[in-house]
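Possible regression after last week's pipeline update?

I re-ran a chain I had predicted before the update to compare outputs. Posting the input and the new output here so someone can diff against the archived version. Not blocking, just want to make sure nothing changed silently.
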Amino acid sequence: MKKHFLYIILLLALPLSAKTLPESETHLSSLFEALKTMPEKEECMNIHKQIETELIAALQNDSSFNYPFASLLFLGKIYSDDNLLRIYSWNVPFADGTFFYGCIIQQKDKIHLLKIKETACKPPINKQISQDNWYGALYFRAIPTVYKKKTYYTLLGWAGNDDLTNVKLIDALSFDEMGKMQFGMPVFDMGKTTQHRVLFEYGDQYTMSLDYDKRKRQIIFDRLAPSSPKYEGLYTYYGPSFIYDAFQLKRKEWQFKEDVDARNEE
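New output (post-update):
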């Protein structure tokens, strides 16, 4: 009798709302579908919070790091090149052409929720930013850099700035002494100055190339230019100039190089 009583207590102590990973994936899929039909910011943000909560709960599962979440087409999910991080990111589009963003970065034994305090923004190029004051972006590459037994990750990302321009960025993700994430490191050598991150702003009608060539250890990207000299400084009119520049990895830093060959010979 005592054994049966103990068994009942243990059952009641289990979380009744716990889902399997396929169940969480199905629920997340329905939330992303609902997000596409919500016209008001308040409704969009409510669904965004539900996505955040559901995904955090799913990532508590020990098998989640390798679970594909294959049906979630509106959720970015990439592994770092060393397979030690997994980055989940998504955006919330508003009717005025602006966006809000969500991001959770998963290590095999820890989950980091990135928080935007108020609204998404273009981050400054010379400032370190904590994970609790994030700027908002979708990340599509995470490149590990090891220097003196310490690792940081160079992130390639995209953000919709407004209904006129987009931004692509190169940032550096590191960990402080407490294990919390920090964005921005002075590792981008521009020649005369060194920056914490690099931003590229261009017209919404254009597509900009930004990619990593692992063999050459180069981040290669389009050089942006206005469609006419009279539009200098008006980024709505900036697009690819068919010339490519790069950042070359030298020890810990990325050194800027002009006029590179963008062909990948692999």
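Follow-up from reviewer: compared with the archived run. The longest helix spans residues 41-58. Marking as no regression found.
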